[in-house]
Amino acid sequence: MIKSKRSIYNNIIRSKDLLFALAMRDVKARYQLTILGLYWAIINPLVMALIMGFVFENVFRASGIEGIPYIVFLFTALTFWNLFSNSVGSASTSLTGQASLLSKQYFPRIIIPTATVLARLVDLCFSMVPVALLLYIYKVNININAWMLLLILIIHIIFTLGFSYLVSALNVLYRDVSQVTGLLLMLWMYLSPIFYSISQVPEEFRIYFKYNAIGQIVDMERNLLLTGQAPSGSDILSAMIISLGVFIFGYIVFKKIEPLIAEVL
């Protein structure tokens, strides 16, 4: 495991310039020739939250955290969820979409899905602007425990990278993976505490949510930002162990498939 971690670290360090160049190219490619540019990173999740917030709050009578407006509750969770969902969705086709680059020169192939996740971190930064605005408008005070958000965000990124490595590699061999990934992410979102909190889940089902690491992570991030409720040490440890497991598994699968990438593409 130590050797594997060193290998990952060395690959990233040696190719850091390419990593950032690919990440910035990804961002520019998505927003170039658009009138609003990077503002779409704010508009898309905000419109989605407004529509879903209206439907779930007024039709399904959903509720979030007591004292927190539902639109703030929902939009905050969607902002963090989209980091995972958009990263994995883009990563699933990241290698197959770079066939010409992969055939021209050699570099660690893992740089490509890593750059995809890095590019989505840029979206997250822009999406935090309307989150901050909503917190100001609805007078939601940030608790001192919010600093722990950085720790949970690191776990979030570890899980996202591992899953991105897995789907990007598998999609090289089986192009159905990108289609299945889209369906999986949609189902996963509704089975995660995005539109509701874990505290609203019946007691007998909560044990299953412990294994949904990304759902648990998003719920912890939202609670830290909106209420300052610090997650328990056991919850953090559980999310960390599962995230590291997904990361290591995704990396191992990627390295096994990596020698076949150029040949298949």
From TrEMBL:
<keyword id="KW-0813">Transport</keyword>
<feature type="transmembrane region" description="Helical">
    <location>
        <begin position="110"/>
        <end position="138"/>
    </location>
</feature>
<feature type="transmembrane region" description="Helical">
    <location>
        <begin position="144"/>
        <end position="168"/>
    </location>
</feature>
<dbReference type="GO" id="GO:0015920">
    <property type="term" value="P:lipopolysaccharide transport"/>
</dbReference>
<keyword id="KW-0472">Membrane</keyword>
<feature type="domain" description="ABC transmembrane type-2">
    <location>
        <begin position="36"/>
        <end position="257"/>
    </location>
</feature>
<dbReference type="GO" id="GO:0140359">
    <property type="term" value="F:ABC-type transporter activity"/>
</dbReference>
<feature type="transmembrane region" description="Helical">
    <location>
        <begin position="68"/>
        <end position="89"/>
    </location>
</feature>
<feature type="transmembrane region" description="Helical">
    <location>
        <begin position="33"/>
        <end position="56"/>
    </location>
</feature>
<dbReference type="InterPro" id="IPR013525">
    <property type="entry name" value="ABC2_TM"/>
</dbReference>
<dbReference type="InterPro" id="IPR047817">
    <property type="entry name" value="ABC2_TM_bact-type"/>
</dbReference>
<dbReference type="InterPro" id="IPR000412">
    <property type="entry name" value="ABC_2_transport"/>
</dbReference>
<feature type="transmembrane region" description="Helical">
    <location>
        <begin position="180"/>
        <end position="198"/>
    </location>
</feature>
<dbReference type="GO" id="GO:0043190">
    <property type="term" value="C:ATP-binding cassette (ABC) transporter complex"/>
</dbReference>
<comment type="similarity">
    <text>Belongs to the ABC-2 integral membrane protein family.</text>
</comment>
<keyword id="KW-0997">Cell inner membrane</keyword>
<keyword id="KW-1003">Cell membrane</keyword>
<dbReference type="Pfam" id="PF01061">
    <property type="entry name" value="ABC2_membrane"/>
</dbReference>
<feature type="transmembrane region" description="Helical">
    <location>
        <begin position="236"/>
        <end position="254"/>
    </location>
</feature>
<keyword id="KW-0812">Transmembrane</keyword>
<keyword id="KW-1133">Transmembrane helix</keyword>
<protein>
    <recommendedName>
        <fullName>Transport permease protein</fullName>
    </recommendedName>
</protein>
